[in-house]
Amino acid sequence: MPLAAGVAVRLRGATKIYDNGVAALGPLDLSVRSGEFVSLLGPSGCGKSTALRLIAGLSAPTAGGVQVASRGDRARYDVGFVFQEPTLMPWATVRRNVRLPLDLARMQRREAEASVDDALAQVGLTEFANVYPHELSGGMKMRVSLARALVTDPDVLLLDEPFAALDEITRFKLNNDLLSLWRKLHKTILFVTHSVFESVYLSQRILVMTSRPGRIQGEFRIDGPASRGEDFRTSGEYAAYCREVSASLANASIAGVQR
């Protein structure tokens, strides 16, 4: 069945059972609209990362269907993935790390360099194009990873707990920068996190997953201001959302154990 107009990602009854018999996911049903910022929230091991890997085509579902809206002849560029770790090549400069997907796609060098310049500018790393990963902070390495995901101009951006290992100040800054990029570039973002506070701050919609095998237990629409900042983070509205989502997460964890 083709995707409905305006839908970027859809999973229908998607399950994942690994060769060792572990049921990691599902059946999972979700739909993400084009340009939407959605967070998958759940306890560790609930299948959040597995869901992203299915959407990215890095793994095949055991059953069910996974659909991503395509731009036809540029289908290979439809999804960008930011992993938990930056996974940068230590022997390559920032520029070469960001250019890697374009090199693999055999893009012409001049066109590739222009795309790399744009991606580096979007994440504020233009001045660091020729340095090596060991010269960068953890936050800057994650910016390189984000630039590498953006360099192909994907419609859908998948982020798998990208800021979990960073200190709180850096994490808050990158949260704000990610929101600015989302508003500017109009990407569809699916963001995996185990942080209630981060999910409420970033998202238009939060999907709460049960313990393994992960399913959708709760859904919350966050009607905060379009341009979020510290005023929202310190507001009573934000605190109320966090309490409500936290309660749902606790119930989802219990539901997963009892299944």
Structure in words:
The chain is α/β, with parallel strands linked by helices and 259 residues long. The protein contains eight helices and nine strands. The chain has helices at residues 48-56, 94-104, 109-122, 138-150, 168-185, 196-202, 230-233, 236-258, and strands spanning 7-17, 23-33, 37-41, 63-68, 79-82, 156-160, 188-193, 205-209, 216-221. The strands form two sheets. It has a six-stranded mixed β-sheet, with helices on both faces. A three-stranded antiparallel β-sheet has the order 2-1-4, covered by helices on one side. A hairpin with a 6-residue loop joins strand 8 and strand 9. Helix 6 (196-202) packs across helix 8. The longest helix is centred in the C-terminal third of the chain and has 23 residues, at 236-258. It is globular, with a radius of gyration of 18 Å. The two termini are 30 Å apart. The mean pLDDT is 91.
Write the layout of secondary structure elements.
Blueprint: E1 7-17, E2 23-33, E3 37-41, H1 48-56, E4 63-68, E5 79-82, H2 94-104, H3 109-122, H4 138-150, E6 156-160, H5 168-185, E7 188-193, H6 196-202, E8 205-209, E9 216-221, H7 230-233, H8 236-258
Parallel strand pairs: 3-7, 3-8, 5-6, 6-7
Antiparallel strand pairs: 1-2, 1-4, 8-9
Task: Briefly summarize what is shown.
The protein is α/β, with parallel strands linked by helices and 259 residues long.
Task: Give short descriptive properties of this protein.
259 residues; alpha/beta; three-stranded antiparallel sheet; 8 helices; 9 strands
Can you give the mean pLDDT?
A: 91
Helix and strand element order: EEEHEEHHHEHEHEEHH
Instruction: Give the distance, in angstroms, between the N- and C-terminal Cα atoms.
Output: 30 Å
Give the strand order of the largest sheet, numbering strands 1, 2, ... along the chain. Answer: 5-6-7-3-8-9
The percent range for helix content is: 25-40%
What is the overall silhouette?
A: globular
Q: Strand pairing plus helix content: what structural class?
A: alpha/beta
Number of helices: 8
The gyration radius over C-alpha positions equals 18 Å
- Unreliable spans are none
Describe the biggest sheet? Answer: 6 strands, mixed
Assembly state: single chain
Strand content: 15-25%
Tally the beta strands. 9
